[in-house]
Amino acid sequence: MTKRVLLIEDFPVIQNLYGDALNNAGFAVDIAADGKTALDKVGQYQYDVVLVDLLLPNVNGIQFLEQFTNRPPQTSVFILSDFTDPKSVEQAKKLGIKGYMIKAETTPSQLIEKLKLTTEPTPATEPAAS
Amino acid sequence: MDLSRFEISGSDLESNVISLQNAKLIRLRWVYVSVLAVVAVLPAFFTNRLSSVTFFGVAALLTFLINGCFYVFNKKHKQNVSAQHILVGAQLLLDIILASLITFNQGGIDARTAALYAIPVTAAGLLFSELIVHCVAVCSGIGYVLSIVLYSVRNGAIDWQELLPAIIFYPILFIIYSTLVTYLIKSNINEVREQAYDSFLALLTHQLKRPASTASSIIDQLEHGIPDNIDKQKHYISILKSENQTLLHLLNNLLETAAFPSFSDKQEVVNLSRLLQRVAYNTAEASGRETDVKIKLPSDHLSVAGNSGRLSTALTNVLNNAFQYSPAGSPVKIDAHESGGSVIVSVEDAGKGLTEEAKNKLFKKYTLHENQEAGVRGLGLGLYVTKKIVQAYDGNLHIVSNKDGTKVMLILKKGTKK
Hints:
The complex is a heterodimer.
Chain A: E1 4-8, H1 12-24, E2 28-32, H2 35-44, E3 49-52, H3 61-67, E4 76-80, H4 86-94, E5 99-101, H5 108-119
Parallel strand pairs in A: 1-2, 1-3, 3-4, 4-5
Helix pairs in contact in A: 2-3
Chain B: H1 12-46, H2 50-76, H3 81-106, H4 111-116, H5 118-124, H6 130-154, H7 160-223, H8 230-259, E1 268-271, H9 272-287, E2 293-296, E3 303-306, H10 308-324, E4 332-339, E5 342-349, H11 356-361, H12 382-392, E6 396-402, E7 405-413
Helix pairs in contact in B: 1-2, 1-3, 2-3, 3-5, 3-6, 5-6, 6-7, 7-8, 9-10, 10-12
């Protein structure tokens, strides 16, 4: 089943680079250029993964996380940002993110690897042989 | 880490911090009003001195009302640093006068009334100046001494044996207290500086990493043979070129900022016409706005005095702003002409223009245009650096802005070949 990803990123070049890479890897990608649009989208659709930049116009990444409270349990939220202000990192971690990735250190290929691992169904544990 | 060279004066951080400190001061003065009531009014009840009750009741009410006015003023003028300083200064003066009036009225050498002077000294510590704290301590000492001396004069006799120790002891106590307060305030300033430094570092690393992360993503994709389309590959390569230029430009601005005040390069005669054309088309290409540039030059031989590298940085900053803060498809007009002994370069965009608040912050370091911070590719240094460069070559910079757009004019000294 195709996994659905929401990429919240305001810089068009990065939108295209990560968006194209994720599409080519078989993910269905939606893009939001600001936190407000992202909140509208998560209200309409259920995503398997949400990738959030921190510095965004209108509603920023932290504000988005604070308002995105009714998350489905299968939705994994990652920060994907080059902004590493310690206060913001701490705040984001308290808001239930699954991981914090620095864009400069995370190529599209590495991102895809990570998302594939995250969205793979967990194998059922076999009962011990009696 | 020694952050004492890290300037926060003139920044939004300073005005926000002073406003917060002033709010603390106002809260402190509510405590002062309560202390005033307890120290001065209650004993007057027990001694049945109704006139004293009236006097101190009025003093407490007056302080209450004035504090309320200061509270409203502080809320309305948060960004006005000079108003904040005047506000605090007025409060300190009022506190010293009130404490002195109470001392004069109560009379005698009384530790309770001397304690009232601790309030203005502590409050003075909320200003960022050690000198002012000591001045307030000295004024408090003078106020206290005058009050007890005048009280003695009013009673008809000055008992120097009783007064002299108090006249010496309490002012010294105030100075010791002010030294303690300044020590505490210094550690507070370092905390503020560290916060400002951390925020600046976070912004700096973000803005510098952005071109790097774009480049590494493109290289990663090209390595994996994506895209396989030659036109898209060329497009990726042009993005790489533009991001590299952006990175170099950001680094240039940082270096220019760090270079001041040791700004000493040899002035030369620069062909402005050629420089302007090159910079205009490079910045337009980097912004994807090649068709929006409208350049008008009277000749190919306009010359100015300066350094071509630094003038290139100054012009790039102005043009980058014009492209970033105006919609794609709208024209960015560039004009240069001689006027007396100067050459005037103007760059005009058709963006939304600047608010009054934005105009006041234009030349401050590390300040980005409001509502644009997240999308802007910069460190808030562009116009600060441009103005410094232009002024270093005896020129000037003016900005006119309204809802139809912004026009930046650089007035440069004409270059003359010797």
